[in-house]
Amino acid sequence: MGSPGAPLASAPALAGLDVYKDYVGAALTSHAFDRVAPGLGKWLVAVASWLFAVSTMISYAYYGEQGMVYMAGRRSIVPFKIVYCLSILLACAGWISTEAELDNLSSVGTGVMLWVNIPITLLFAGETMRAYRGYFARVRAARRR
């Protein structure tokens, strides 16, 4: 092996024709597993994706519920759960049939999140930095002991 930047003694050789296959995202991951154990990829990636989706829905439900308790009290939990479950059912009803529709819907959700969080971030930036500095001052004080 030569030094970095030095010309090669011979041209690189192509390992096989499948180097040029066009796999993206989950298909690439599935193909990689199939090369080790044929047939494993499609099932492993599908099950892992499904488990990730379910765990994400559970986590978002919990954090949303806690946010509703903080903003509107414990009485808001049941209405939130109803709206959340209906949203999941609507998302799975088959109305979203293309990547573009899914991208549009997720972009609207991201936009709503930004419109809510940016003003809150600006409003509490000073308090956040005071807490940050206070935390590290306590860490430095503990190290000196």
Entry keywords:
mainly alpha; 145 residues
Could you give the count of β-strands? Answer: 0
Roughly what percent helix?
over 70%
Major beta sheet summary: none
- Determine the strand fraction and express it as a percent band: under 5%
- Kindly provide the radius of gyration, computed on alpha-carbon positions and rounded to a whole number of angstroms: 25 Å
Explain how this protein is built.
This protein has 145 residues and is an all-alpha fold. 73% of the residues lie in helices and 0% in strands. The chain is built from four helices and no strands. The chain is extended. The mean pLDDT is 87.
Secondary-structure topology with pairs:
Elements lengths: L24 H12 L3 H33 L4 H15 L7 H46 L1
Offer a concise description of the structure.
The protein is mainly α and 145 residues long. It has helices at residues 25-36, 40-72, 77-91, 99-144. The protein is built from 4 helices and no strands.
